[in-house]
Amino acid sequence: MAIAAEHDESESSGPHGGAELALPPADTEIELKLTATPEALAALRESDLIASRALGPPETRSLESAYYDTPDRRLQQRGAGLRVRRAGGGFVQTLKAEDDDNAALFGRGEWEAPVASFEPDLAALSAEPARALLDDIDPDALAPVFATRIERTTRPVAVPRTHGAGNGGSEAEVECAFDTGAVEAGGRSVAVSEVELELTRGAPAALYRFAAELHALAPLRVETLSKAARGHLLAAGAVPPYRKAVALDLDGDATAGEVLDAILRGCFRHCLANQATALDGRDPEGVHQMRVALRRLRSALAAFRPLLGGDRVDWLAAETRWLAAALGPARDWDVFLAELVAPVAEALPDRTELAVLRRAAEAERARGYAQAREAIESGRATTLLLALGEWIEGAGWRDGGDTDALAHPATEVAGRLLDRRHRKAMKSGRGFARLGADQRHEVRIQLKKVRYLTEFFLSLYSGRRGRAYLNALTGLQKGLGRLNDVAVAERLLATVVADQAAAAIDAGNGTDALCFGAGIVVGWHRRGVQELEPRLRDDWDAFAEARPFWTGPGR
Question: What is the pLDDT of residues 263-319, one digit of tens each?
């Protein structure tokens, strides 16, 4: 996931304050890519919005680029890309690298140097960060991996402090690049039709606000893969890799506001980093991780809600809930097939009824993925992501919030939030051994909220108690998750039988075989649930006895 340069995040900066325009550090590119249909792209390029904000005439160029790497893809493994581009009568060599330590959401280190031809010249890249990325790269081992052929129309525009303000009082300046063409590798190609917004002056929040204005004119989708990433995937025939949440490494002296900023950015990156994998659909972890990211974000918004102001928080919470729910069926059918049907089918390979059930479930999963893709590619999702990006980059969560509490040490606020969640979880699990399925489901929900907060805040505290608490919590949550999987499976089986999944059932087997297969799976896992019960009770006792790591000595 590419992120960008450090910038001023004080209360006075961004779209709501009066700070001086900030320039990004040298050798840093801050950009936002948005995919559009060719028709939408043409409409945006000729729109009155672009014309009224323009700081200069449009310029159109044909760009032909070759991307290089070693046979073992060493640069790609380092998150770097080496490109030589022919534009006009010359050649430019560019090295790009992601930098997850920087603060803004989209951006990367970038170093350029003129070269004589399409052949790369590593000696021309003399900046120290570039040299570090190129360490032990043998120039003779570099070979072209893929190419891009792009028709690019660029135009610099001003982003005003308020919508519709024309050129006067601009908050930022952005170079709009409208790209059409293709990425080509090994005789295959994928089309490119996108607008790339690169910040040349000002705060990154302006990129999101301007992108939202463009999206209001023509449908756009946030593009999370660079052309280089798309080229490598095309060349390898690979699935976009999924990303798990990155553990936060927080400063013990940080304020609550600084920690909240880190949490929100981490959740947003986690979500965007899995969008391409979810859309591809071949790796179930894409949908799973994107959904986890949205749920973690919702948990953070709910926990910090008393400190935050404005209706924007409630709208963001509602929209992230919608998107997570839209991904739910795809995830449920993935779990059903992989964790419930597969082990039974492996143990009973001769039961043809299980094959009938599997085909019916696969048809349902395909419908779930179609729903997930429709949601991710919708204008509603784009509106959410752009609003969330602007809200985070502009520190909009400070507007109308409890600024005093946000300025307090993070450990004070974290302790109160953790204590509140912990008490709710303990209350929901009172008399655990006697609780029914619905009550235990509520315990699971409360534990998940505790776990997210624990993962957010754990690095603020030293000592072993935090890890011991998280281990006890995770063990109990896994057991309860197993109960939930079986409960969801019974609901899904009812759906399959009701729909009869006609297209996926062998004509000679029909609904009877499907129902019989469903009965085998339910019976198999109900027995497993009964066997799990003693361990569940022990896991609850272990969690109940775990000392809260945010209180007392030795924390």
Answer: 999 999 999 999 999 999 999 999 999 999 999 999 999 999 999 988 899 999 999
Q: What is the length of the chain?
A: 555
Taken in order 50, 51, 54, 58, is the CA torsion positive or negative?
positive
Rg (CA), the chain: 26
Tokens representing 476 are 């109990």
Structure token pair of residue 497: 């039988």
pLDDT digits (tens, 9 = 90+) for 478-507: 999 988 888 888 888 888 877 754 444 444
3-state secondary structure 63-84: EEEEEEECCCCHHHHCCEEEEE
CA 174 – CA 390 distance, rounded (Å) = 15
Q: In whole angstroms, what is the distance from residue 253 CA to residue 103 CA? A: 18
> Residue 295: helix, strand or coil by DSSP?
helix
Q: Which two tokens stand for residue 309?
A: 């102001």
Cα separation, 417 vs 467, whole angstroms: 18
| CB-based contact 393:204 (threshold 8 Å) | yes
The yes/no answer on whether domain 311-545 falls in CATH 1.40.20.10 is: yes
Question: What's the distance, Cα to Cα, between the start and end of the chain in Å?
Answer: 34
Q: Are 14-238 and 311-545 the same fold in CATH?
A: no
Given the candidates 2.40.320.10, 3.20.20.80, 3.40.50.10260, 3.10.560.10, the CATH classification of the domain at 14-238 is 2.40.320.10
Euclidean distance between CA atoms 142 and 139, whole angstroms: 5
Say which residues have a Cβ less than 8 Å from residue 350's Cβ, sequence separation at least 6. none
**In Å, how far from its chain's centre is CA 152?**
28
Domain ranges of the chain: 14-238, 311-545
How many CA atoms lie within 13 Å of 223's alpha carbon, on the beta-carbon side?
A: 22
The pTM of this model reads 0.88
Dist CA 41 CA 56 (whole Å): 19
